[in-house]
Write a structure and sequence with these properties.
This protein is of the alpha/beta class and 140 residues long. The chain has 3 helices and 7 strands; from the N terminus they run βαββαβαβββ. The longest helix has 14 residues. The two termini are 16 Å apart.
């Protein structure tokens, strides 16, 4: 499993996490999913979670999904995943992340320490939903 993306897309993901700090930032990954999965662009979202939970949770609404599907269609791309930040926390998926994840998607998690994006890792939920497997990120 490998996920390809450009330095520019990674920089946009990091900037969104830094802008959202100390809350979690999130958005969609739009790209292609042929022999190689590649992120072509992102669709940043506003965190719709209630105020008290935004520091360690994000919420993507049905309207957000619809907007992302329509934008992907408009660009001739597919909705291939979600990115989100973990403020002052490791970039490993939480149980909450697993509960809400879909097996098909790539999940890029960025640790943001004291307002600065440190590192991103990508994960995919296995089909039985029991755990995530790390997906290698290749920067083009």
């Amino acid at each position: 499993m490998m996920l390809r993306l450009s330095k520019d897309v990674l920089a946009q993901i990091h900037a969104h996490g830094e802008d959202a700090y100390p809350e979690e930032g999130a958005g969609f990954l739009l790209g292609s999913d042929g022999n190689e999965r590649a992120v072509k662009t992102i669709l940043p979202l506003t965190n719709s979670r209630e105020d008290a939970a935004r520091h360690n949770r994000y919420l993507i609404t049905p309207e957000d999904y619809l907007k992302a599907e329509l934008e992907a269609d408009r660009l001739g791309l597919s909705l291939i995943g979600v990115f989100h930040s973990h403020p002052d926390h490791p970039n490993r998926p939480s149980e909450f992340d697993r509960d809400w994840a879909q097996p098909f998607f790539s999940y890029i998690i960025t640790s943001v320490d004291s307002g600065k994006a440190i590192e991103s890792r990508s994960w995919r939920l296995i089909e039985d939903r029991s755990q995530f497997e790390e997906e290698k990120i290749q920067i083009n």
